[in-house]
Model the fold of this input.
Amino acid sequence: MGIGSPAPAPETSPGNAVGDMTGTRAASATSHGGGHATSTGLDTWKLGFWIFLGSETLFFGSLISTYMVYKHESIVGPHPPEVLNIPLTSISTFVLLMSSLAMVIALDAVQRGMRRSALFWIMAVVLLGGGFLGFQAYEFTHFYHVGLTLETNLFGSTFFILTGFHGAHVSVGVMWLLILWLDAWRGRLGPHNALRLEIAGLYWHFVDIVWIAIFTLIYLIE
Amino acid sequence: MATEPGGTASPSHGDTHEGGHATVGTYVLIGVILTIITAVEVAVFYIPALAGVLVPVLITLSATKFVIVVLFYMHLRYDHPIFSRVFFGPMMLALFVVISLILLFKYLPRFDPY
Done:
């Protein structure tokens, strides 16, 4: 359907009842053919979330460019080659990539109504995300012990701001997914409102692609 | 690619199930591809002979991973094109800002009034 096409008629199923905001948002336009009356024919939550992710690219773009501009400008050490641990970060990158795989499998399970599988895979994403945060906490602690803090030099300031904001995003994602796991456990997350997990998944994958850029630009390119 | 109400596009590919998204098998295959690309990135980093082409190779591999995740895991390959536009539009602007700032501060001659 084109943007200018007439919007489909609102659904009147119980799961999409007026007043049930959660159900309305989620069931109104899941990726499996739902739809509610909007001028575009698209789900407003999903469209709005994609616009939000677009703005997030500008946010992280500014942080990455700040890091790149001040790269090699630190007067005192430690400098990046002295402290960055490529093998360890490669493992944490792999962990985050696998969490994205678990995320899409979890979404598939929810859309198919496979509750036990959904519970397993959502928890897998939470644990893998937690694992990534553990790697980051270890890295930050190690940097602190070798004398690199937010105030030490330009590298420390830009590195901690960039990776810290990314870690904060991962933390938000982990908490969001824990809430969705609890909803799935209580039987409140299923094919009728799978859009809730789909939007959380978009956020999670975005965090993943930001790390793809960070891993290359900050860790691998000296 | 036909588009359904609700913003879902229906590709005519055999690797999708109802609703236009990839199957779990496709997701796992993509996960394997992403892992291999990451391993190649790290290997390239440690090969001294490739030091001269390190930056373009790493950026190409990274961009490949980025596009794969966005198209398949974020479903932009299957969803309505407007989602791609509202995401890639700002992303291109961000890319322009990053490249401009790097060129301005790192490569262009600095203006020194004294």
About this structure: The two ends of chain B are 61 Å apart (CA to CA). The helical segments of chain B are 24-46, 54-73, 81-107. Chain B touches chain A through 57 residues (CB under 8 Å).
